Amino acid sequence: MWALAPFESLQQLKKLSMVVFSKLQELTIQGCKSLLSVWALATVERLQQLKNLSIGYCDLIEEVLVITKEAGDHEETESKKITFPKLESLELRYLPKLKRFGLCQADDHYTVEFPSLLRIHITNCPELSTFIAKSIPSTSTTVEEVEERRMAEEIMFSQKVVFNNLQELTIQGCKSLQSVWALATVERLQQLKKLRIGHRDLIEPNVISRLVQLEELYMEDVGEINASLVSEIKDLQKLRVLLIRIPGGSFVPEDMFDHLNLESYHIQIGPYFGFSFKKSTRVLRVNNPKDRSLLYEDGFQ
Questions:
Q1: How many Å separate Cα 140 from the centre of its chain?
Q2: 229-270 per-position pLDDT tens digit
Q3: Measuring CA to CA, how many Å separate 265 from each of 118, 176, 217, 259?
Q4: How far is residue 244's CA from residue 209's CA, in Å, rounded to a whole number?
């Protein structure tokens, strides 16, 4: 294990012992308030044993990984690959300036692969908009090229990011994020068992129903519940735990739980008010305009 906590004037990690990194299994970076980025590509290639990465409370960091033309192979290829072969857990939290996990400044096309990744936990990164971004040169030839790149980077996990064994995903407090993944890439999430997201709009239609292994679903701002969302949830035959907050809603459909075998649920309708959730409970809370709530436990009445 290796930890940085805190070095408030640290801006870059470079020229550190490659012997240390070649055997490193756990890295925690916390409270380094001047840090702008963590690694260049040459360093990542030495992190073959890294299993856990946690970065938090770094006020200025904009990306974790920077891929420069000088850092990698200069031969021109159609696509190149960066692999974190043993990384199992990735945690990014309270990073107010974080825009992406990786920034590619090279001319080549890169994909980032996490073959062993089981858990991603991203919270309170308000400027985060994508996972891997490619810098736009000032000499870009056409407006169409710039627009195409911009649209691709509106999706958090595009085809540039590969993880086929992910089991747990949490994304909360990421106000700039528009979409977590597209329908075309959802096949990479067939092992996902636990999903926690801050807003329903981050998930495109017809995606949730394809997460066939999902056991726990937490959606903390659904907006208004509708028939399509109910239908998608009802398709999750392995779902056992459900938490939904519906600030703009006024009802829950009667057939909401048809064909589901939930062990616990907590559904909150109306403006937000605090509550504690335990997996052993079955609760429906309705907050009415007079700031009073109705509480139903162990089923609807």
A1: 30
A2: 888 888 899 999 998 887 776 666 667 777 788 888 888 877
A3: 24, 29, 10, 15
A4: 16
